[in-house]
Amino acid sequence: MRAVVLRGKGDVVLTDVPTPSAGPGQIVLRVAANTVCGTDVRLVRGEKDAREGVVLGHEASGWVHEIGEGVTGFEVGDLVAVLPTISCGSCYFCQRDLEHHCETAHLFGYVDDGGLAEYQLIPAEAVARGNLIKAPSDVDPAHLALAEPVACVLNGVREYGVELGDTVVILGAGPIGLLHLKLALLRGAKNVIVTNRGAERREVALRMGATHAVDPTTEDLGALVRSLTEGRGADVAVVTIGVPELFDEASKLVRTGGRVSAFAGFPKGGTAVIDPNDIHYGQLTVTGGSNCRRSDYAEAVSLLASGAIDGSEFVTHRFPLEQALDAIDLTADRGGIKVAVTPDGA
Ligand SMILES: [Zn+2]
Ligand SMILES: [Zn+2]
Fold first, then answer.
1. Residue 306 lies in a domain
2. Separation of 171 CA from ligand 1 center, angstroms?
3. 174 and 64, same structural domain?
């Protein structure tokens, strides 16, 4: 079969690999869609490592194609989304509902072969752990593939919380920033202010329901936030771009008792400055969020399947598998919002 393989650091090719077949406890999916993520770009650029020889892709959906001996609960043709993190279920973190921080976790698209291929093998431990979440057959598989980023954002939102009537500032209008926007609106935020340098993404944010879209290079974000909150500051500020200075800025935008989320990944060794009195007197809450639990993932599938999150607002481009490398290039160039690779590009 055809697959996108990481041959070595930063060396990614579309090539032929053996087609998997399902052994005991395993399932083979016919991949329906795999959306491309910034992490795939970093793998292609050699900025991040994964197992040599691994098939890339960690945002996948597929149809059950072959069911191994002993597997119950699935039928050939079922549409499923693939939770990328395979956790052990028994370590300290798994026992405390923090399976996304499992000590021995391994991921599709990094260690286990991912969804940028015609078929994907789901190992027995992943089948048994519930990594395949079924979806109604009429859901667009490219939208279903978004379950991973949606779930990661859900994990972040749970940490910082959005209450009815809140004023939320989201720094950055990439796919992740736009998902924070969507979830803030679903949770009943009154004002959602999205910042972005590029005008195009600001337009997208407004179309998706942002009450304000701000160009941080020309507009006074702090003044806008104060004017909307009787001078108090926002309830929440979320940093979705990995620029440490934005964290400093976010912590100044929130009210007494407000919340700040360092949701983006930041460059190694980056530092942010925070006045401890903002935490003491200001009762500032600082949260983050990386990866997601199965419960986040299942919730993401249901939000996408119901249309509460409209995948068509996010998936702006589709490429056939033969053009998967172009799909990664387009993501690197920030073209569109999310780029999906589907078997035939449809
Ligand atoms: Zn991703
Ligand atoms: Zn574990």
1. no
2. 19
3. no
| Residues, CB within 5 angstroms of ligand 1 (ion) | 37
Closest CA to 256 of 285, 227, 217: 285
Separation of 95 CA from ligand 2 center, angstroms? 7
In angstroms, what is the span from residue 188 Cα to ligand 2's centroid?
Answer: 34
* Model confidence pLDDT, tens digit, residues 75-110: 999 999 999 999 999 999 999 999 999 999 999 999
User: Residue 155 has which token pair?
Assistant: 């994990």
Residues 60 and 13 both lie in one domain: yes
Q: How confident is the model at residue 268 (pLDDT cuts 50, 70, 90)?
A: confident
Nearest ligand to the CA of 151 is 1
Ligand 2 mean position, distance from CA 81 (Å):
21
Please state the domain count of the chain: 2
| The predicted structure's pLDDT at residue 227 | 98
316 and 337 in contact (C-beta within 8 Å)? yes
Ligand nearest to the backbone CA of 152 = 1
Indicate whether 141 and 176 sit together in one domain. Answer: no
- Cα–ligand 1 centroid distance for 182 (angstroms): 17
The domain in which residue 27 lies consists of 2-146+314-341
- Output the CA–CA distances (angstroms, integers) from residue 304 to 20, 65, 111, 150, 260, in the order listed: 29, 23, 27, 9, 26
Please tell me the distance from the alpha carbon of residue 260 to that of residue 256, in angstroms, as a whole number.
Answer: 11
pLDDT digits (tens, 9 = 90+) for 141-156: 999 999 999 999 999 9
pTM: 0.96
